[in-house]
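So, could you explain the following?
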Amino acid sequence: CIALLCLSLGSITRRQLVGYSSAAVSYLPIMENVKTKASVYIATTVDGYIADSDGSVEFLNQYQSSASEADGDMGFADFLNSIDLLIMGRKTFDQVISFGDDLWPYGDRQVWIW
């Protein structure tokens, strides 16, 4: 997960926006009286980078492989279980799908591409 905005939208009708431009998002109907919780989950370096200059996230592997058994997934599974929907940028989406279908970490959650 490089940069995501994750929402809990309750039981409402949602549109999938994969492939839509950010301009299309502004035309979504306003949801009134819906309790919404937004959370941001970003894997980032201390100096604020979410990817190398070439867009690679290989630097994250050193932290994943050095996590102790006690740390496990560092709460990522619990976090995913608390959300209904992910919003991510096109570059992030392309990066994640490049890992292969067997490494898609978001299950059957709806993903909106920004």
About this structure: Residues 3-113 form one domain. Confidence is low (pLDDT under 50) at residues 1-29. The beta strands are 3-8, 37-42, 85-88, 110-113. The helical segments are 22-25, 61-66, 76-81, 90-97.
